Structure formats: structure tokens, C-alpha cells
């Protein structure tokens, strides 16, 4: 009965997962490791190998950052084992493998690191022994690039047995995985900030009334780590708005800071105000009069992305710099309208 339930679950997962690997929650990975069998050498003097190198593939679907369903195929190595069956001795030499299916429960304790646990079913195979068993595991995962993660995991296939064969399989895995959803989110974010080119008209000398405006968004990388102080290397990002304000003394600038929804609301409000104030102070140091500035912090209000994801939180930690539209008169080369 146990074998039937596990096999049906694996088949159902394969069928359901096939169309989702192009969707936002799908991921694929590979891993290597070492396995150890327990109580697998029971005949005195018989050759025995109860530890081996292994490798495997895994795939799954993340519904959110806390819950996923994961399917694995594992080659657990080649073993020589010996067991006592009544008055007979049984010695077996062969490859061991398994297919597992389990929910993966994760707890992220920052934007890069998470711990996780799994408990589910395994269908294990060792030469002519093929049985269902329980499987569990715990591990730690690190997002080292936009769509790539590494993980270290301990796994046990518990009570893999038949009439004469009985062992537990303990494995330490080191793996890497690729998330299709994180890659798609990064590509969408890059596309969103692409600015359309400004079309230039053939020139004719004429006095015209012009209007200008300016918008700029600075992310969390503008500031030192865990600080509201500007990074020296990022100060050059403000050269365009400083040049505009110096060229047009009639213009004004609005500076508004925002945070994500992590942490206490009062702390987020203070951080948003202090980061906006840091930018205002730098503009003032570059000759922009304080009376031309409107400076405020909005805390976690007005999010532009989903705060339940790492990428969304990163987009929400920002300072928006806006020069409201203003008019000025110049003589320049413009194209006349027919």
C-alpha cells in the first residue's frame, strides 16, 4: 500500500509540474553528495561497502518564499551489503537510487539566506529490492546571484526494507539551482527602467517657450550598508539634476524617501526621512538653495512593487527626485509646424 501511494504521488507531480516550468515559480537544480547506510554489514567476513558518492537532479515549484513542492531523482551510489535471513546469509552488490517527493518549507532570515525542511515519500531501489519509505531533510540555502541559489542539505531515507533487507540511508548534499521566476522578474525590472529616446526636430532659429521636468529614482545601493549616509561613489548620480537646477534657477525640486514594509513602521518612517534629507544636504552642498527644495519621507507608503518578494522589497526601498514642470524662454533651433 505504501509503495502504491508514493508511486501515485510521484506520477501526479510529474504530470502537474510539466507545464509549470516556464511559469514564475519553477526551478531546476543538480547536486552531489555522500551517503551512508546504517546496519548494512551483518555477515562476518563478507565484503561490505556501506558508504558511497552520489549525485542527483531536483526540480520544484515555489508558491511563495515559504512553501514549495520538490521532486528529486537521486543516484545514491554503489554498495556491497550483507544481511542475515533466518539461517541464510544474503550478500548483495549493486547501485542504489531513489525518487522522492516532498513539500519544502522555508524560513528566510534575510534577503539571501534561508533555512528549510522537507518531509515526504521516497521510492528507493537497490538491485531487486524496490520499496517505498519515508524521507526527511533539513538544510540551508543561499541566493548568490539573481536567479541562482546554492544549498547544503542533510537527508534521511528512513527504514528502507523488505523481508530480509533493512537500512536507513543518510546523505549530505551540496547543490545548486536556477529559478525561472527570479530570472523573469529581473528581466522585467530591467525593461521597466529603459527610457525611450528623445526625438530631435530639424532646427530653425526661433524664440520659443519651453517646458522642462525631471524624474530620478535612487535605490538602496545609493546609501552605505545599513545606513542613511550617501555612498561617495554614488554622488555622481546627482550630477544631472544639479546641472538642471543650476541652469534654471526658477526650477524647484521635490525629494521623497520610501522604504519597504519590513520592520517597525516608525523606524521605516525615520529611515525614509533621513535618506531624503541626506540627498537634500548633498544638493545644498553643491550650491542649490534650500528654499528651492521640498523634502519628506513616506515610510512604507505607496509601494511600487510586491513587498512579499525580495525583488519587490528592493524596488520599494527608494528615493524619488522630481523637478516639477516649469516654463522658460530661449532662442534655439527648432522645427516649425506646417
TrEMBL record:
Presence of keyword Oxidoreductase: no
Membrane disposition: Multi-pass membrane protein
Keywords assigned: Cell outer membrane, Ion transport, Membrane, Porin, Signal, Transmembrane, Transmembrane beta strand, Transport
Gene Ontology molecular function, alphabetical: porin activity
Transmembrane segments: none
Any GO BP: monoatomic ion transport
Primary localization class, coarse: membrane
Secretion signal, residue range per the UniProt entry: 1-22
The protein, known as: Outer membrane protein A
Amino acid at each position: 500500500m505504501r509503495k502504491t501511494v508514493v508511486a501515485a504521488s510521484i506520477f501526479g507531480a510529474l504530470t502537474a509540474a510539466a507545464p509549470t516550468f516556464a511559469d514564475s515559480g519553477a526551478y531546476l537544480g543538480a547536486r552531489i553528495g555522500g551517503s551512508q547506510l546504517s546496519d548494512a554489514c551483518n555477515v562476518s567476513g563478507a565484503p561490505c561497502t556501506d558508504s558511497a558518492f552520489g549525485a542527483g537532479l531536483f526540480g520544484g515549484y515555489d508558491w511563495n518564499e515559504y512553501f514549495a513542492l520538490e521532486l528529486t531523482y537521486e543516484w545514491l551510489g554503489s554498495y556491497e551489503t550483507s544481511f542475515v535471513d533466518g539461517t541464510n546469509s544474503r550478500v548483495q552488490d549493486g547501485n542504489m537510487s531513489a525518487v522522492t517527493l516532498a513539500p519544502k518549507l522555508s524560513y528566510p532570515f534575510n534577503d539571501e539566506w534561508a533555512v528549510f525542511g522537507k518531509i515526504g515519500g521516497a521510492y528507493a531501489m537497490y538491485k531487486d529490492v524496490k520499496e517505498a519509505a519515508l524521507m526527511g531533510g533539513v538544510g540551508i540555502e543561499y541566493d548568490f546571484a539573481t536567479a541562482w541559489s546554492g544549498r547544503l542539505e542533510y537527508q534521511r531515507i528512513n527504514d528502507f526494507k523488505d523481508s530480509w533487507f533493512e537500512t536507513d540511508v543518510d546523505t549530505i548534499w551540496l547543490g545548486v539551482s536556477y529559478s525561472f521566476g527570479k530570472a523573469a522578474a529581473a528581466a522585467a525590472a530591467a525593461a521597466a527602467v529603459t527610457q525611450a529616446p528623445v526625438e530631435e526636430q530639424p532646427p530653425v532659429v526661433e524664440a520659443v517657450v519651453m517646458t522642462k521636468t525631471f524624474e530620478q529614482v535612487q535605490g538602496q545601493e545609493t546609501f552605505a550598508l545599513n545606513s542613511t549616509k550617501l555612498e561617495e561613489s554614488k554622488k555622481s548620480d546627482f550630477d544631472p539634476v544639479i546641472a538642471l537646477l543650476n541652469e534654471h534657477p526658477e526650477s524647484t525640486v521635490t525629494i521623497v524617501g520610501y522604504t519597504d514594509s519590513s520592520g517597525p513602521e516608525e523606524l521605516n518612517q525615520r529611515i525614509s526621512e533621513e535618506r531624503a534629507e541626506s540627498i537634500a544636504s548633498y544638493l545644498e552642498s553643491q550650491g542649490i538653495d534650500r528654499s528651492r527644495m521640498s523634502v519628506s519621507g513616506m515610510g512604507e507608503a505607496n509601494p511600487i512593487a510586491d513587498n512579499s518578494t525580495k525583488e519587490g522589497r528592493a524596488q520599494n526601498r527608494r528615493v524619488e527626485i522630481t523637478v516639477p514642470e516649469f516654463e522658460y524662454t530661449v532662442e534655439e533651433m527648432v522645427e516649425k509646424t506646417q
